[in-house]
Every structure is written in structure tokens, then in C-alpha cells.
Amino acid sequence: AAPAEPTMAETDPKTVQDLTAVVQTLLQQMQDKFQTMSDQIIGRNILFFKSQIDDLEKNIADLMTQAGVEELEGENKTPAANKS
Which Gene Ontology BP annotations are present (predicted)? Predict the structure, then answer.
């Protein structure tokens, strides 16, 4: 039993170092994957909200046209131009 103990003592630090290295590598890979996924989600959200804003702007422009806001603005400018 005595000769086995020094062998275990010699291999323990190496085993611990190997295990530590493996765990650190796995954690780094997981962090990289989460970062990639996070970047993709943020990118998709930005594109989604840009699309929503574009649609909203178009709908507002259409409503303004239907309400005659553009014609009113044109009419308001015409008398001002005539007064000058």
C-alpha cells in the first residue's frame, strides 16, 4: 500500500490540472456560444423593430394622406406665399 500512495500523490496534481483545463475550456466554449446566441437575438430584435417602425411610419403617412393633412399643409402655405 505504501508504494501506491506516492504514485497517487504524483498523479493528483496533474489530474487536477487536466480537469481544471478541461473545465475552463468547456466554460469558455459555453460563454462563446451564449455570446453568439445573444448577438443573434439582439440582431433579430433590431431588424424586427426596424420593420415595425417602418410599417408604423407608412401607416401614419397613409392616415395623414386620408385625413387630408397634406392638402391642408399645402393650402396653409399658399395664402402665406400670396401675402408676401
Answer: cellular heat acclimation
pTM for the model: 0.50
Q: Are 40 and 33 in contact (CB under 8 A)?
A: no
Phi then psi dihedrals of residue 68, to 5 deg: 80, 20
Q: Give the C-alpha separation, 76 to 56, whole Å.
A: 26
Crossing angle (nearest 10°) for helices 69-83 and 4-67? 60
Give me the tens of pLDDT residue by residue for the chain, a chain 84 residues long.
Answer: 555 555 555 557 789 899 999 999 999 999 999 999 999 999 999 999 999 999 999 999 999 999 987 655 555 554 444 444
Specify the number of domains making up the chain. 1
Q: What is the span of the domain harbouring residue 15?
A: 4-83
